[in-house]
Amino acid sequence: MNDNTPAPDAANENATAAPQDPAAELAKANGELKDQLLRTLAEMENLRKRTEREVQDARTYGVASFARDVLAVGDNIRRALDATGADWKTKTDATGQALLEGVELTERELLKALEKHGVRKIEPKGQKFDPNLHQAMFELDDPSVPAGTVVQVLQAGFTIGDRILRPAMVGVAKGGPKAAPAQSETQSSQ
């Protein structure tokens, strides 16, 4: 026998290794490529949505640091107005009244400019204390309002978008006087 002639078993092995159905293999490869394409498209759509969210957040919250700095200016304007006192406007001359009106106008314009950029003032007086929006500085005895009600605002708070930019510094009511335990015990024993 010739050494170059393959053995009958080797010929059978080569026949089984050859592709049996080229159409089936092409369909399988096509399915894999289609799956890969769909995954890539979904990934690109998720990336587009995430990028849109990040751009929107940057637009909304990008001015936050600047706004905090400007709030300090607004606080000083408010302090200047509060320092004049309620009767100062009636007791001063025309120049003093013009100055006061100019400072009030400046404060209103500052608040309007901040609001234009999504910064809104929190008006907590008379509202229930909310630790997410307010920072309690002290408690006051005030029997005319329920406990936990904001009765005094030391420094205005502000939000930007749906986030807190600066909490309002407030005084909170302790509420009306509570009945002493001795009174309730004497009433129950009678």
Please describe what this structure looks like.
It is a single chain. This protein is an alpha+beta fold and 190 residues long. The protein folds into three domains: 23-59; 64-117; 119-178, Roll (Nucleotide Exchange Factor Grpe, Chain A, domain 2). The chain has six helices and six strands. The strands form two sheets. A three-stranded antiparallel beta sheet has the order 1-4-5. A three-stranded mixed beta sheet has the order 2-6-3, with no helix packed on it. β4 and β5 form a beta hairpin. It is elongated. Residues 177-190 have low confidence and may be disordered.
Beginning-to-end CA distance, first to last residue: 127 Å
Number of domains: 3
Structural class: alpha+beta
Which overall shape is indicated by the principal axes computed on the Cα atoms? Answer: elongated
C-alpha-based Rg, rounded: 37 Å
CATH superfamily of the largest domain, please? Head domain of nucleotide exchange factor GrpE
Mean of all residue-level pLDDT scores: 83
Order of helices and strands: HHHHHEEEEEEH
Order of strands across the main sheet: 1-4-5
